[in-house]
Structures are given as structure tokens and as C-alpha cells.
């Protein structure tokens, strides 16, 4: 498969993952599926890991990859469309940007899962009752959170989704770095068999 066509597939995958991440981050603003005071939201929600890192920022490489036409892979060996080689090289740079954005979302999600959600504690104060992820292995500790209802499972599920999405996005961007390198050195033209007219195999 040509590098340009393969990049389009990766771009479509990144777009879908971006929508999932964006949606998950939006839902985090409604812990337990309910609207609460903005001061009662976990701090990590405001870092917009899913909205910025895995969401909007990821659309840059996604659109770049989608713009690499399948036919372009057969033009990089000729003089008429040699700019396509540079387009493949540019996709590597965009892939790095996407990797960093997904990495940001990954760090925010992992830290939030470890820290636990902000909730109303037994002393009628809002705070973070968990330490070092102790609640992950002991559900009896969940009773420390009185409000919002189901906030622990809500945050844990959504941040886990963001974590998984971020990992998948980093993998996709890493694949495109390799794919872009192959396209830049014109291996994709060989797979298309379009270099024969230029005296290359």
C-alpha cells in the first residue's frame, strides 16, 4: 500500500479518536452525569487533556494525513510532482506534534486517575480524600466521597478512556513517522510501480 494512501487511513483513525477524546473531556464537566459548581470539579478537568491534547491539537496531523492523496505517492520520483516527497516529510513533523499532544493528554489522565476525583468528604468539605491511588484497589474507600454521586466511577471511566485514546494516538503518530520516512525516500513509489518510467525500480 502506498504511503500516501496509508497516511489517509491513519488520518481517519486520528479523527475518530479525537472525537472520542473531546466527548470524554466534555462529560468530565458533569461528574456523575449532573451539573455541579465549577469549583467542585477536579483540577485536571481544566487542563483540557482530551479537548486540547487529544482533541483539537490532534486534528492538525489528522487533516495533514487526510490531505495526502493516494495518487501523490506515485509522483515523488518524477520532476513534475517532486514536492510530494516534501509533503510526506512534513507529515512526519505533524506526527510529532500529534504525539506530543497525545502525550500531554496521557500524563494528565494518568495523574488524575492516581489522584482521584474531587468530592464532598465526610467533614463536609470539598477535596481529594484519596492518596497514591489507594482507592483503585480498595472500593471500600469510595465511601469517603459523598457527592457528587458516582463521581469516582464517572471520572475513573472517562479518564481511563482518555488514557487509552492517548496511547492509541501516540501509536498511530509513531507509525506515521515510519510511514513518512518510507514515503520520503520514495519506497512508496516502488510499491506502486510508478518509477519505471523514470528509470528506477
UniProtKB/TrEMBL annotation:
The keyword Transmembrane applies. One of its GO terms (cellular component) is membrane. The keyword Flavoprotein does not apply. Keywords: Membrane, Transmembrane, Transmembrane helix. It is found in: Membrane. The chain crosses the membrane at residues 12-33, 45-66, 86-113, 152-175. It is a multi-pass membrane protein. It holds the Pfam family L6_membrane. Belongs to the L6 tetraspanin family. This is Transmembrane 4 L six family member 4. It comes from Rousettus aegyptiacus (Egyptian fruit bat).
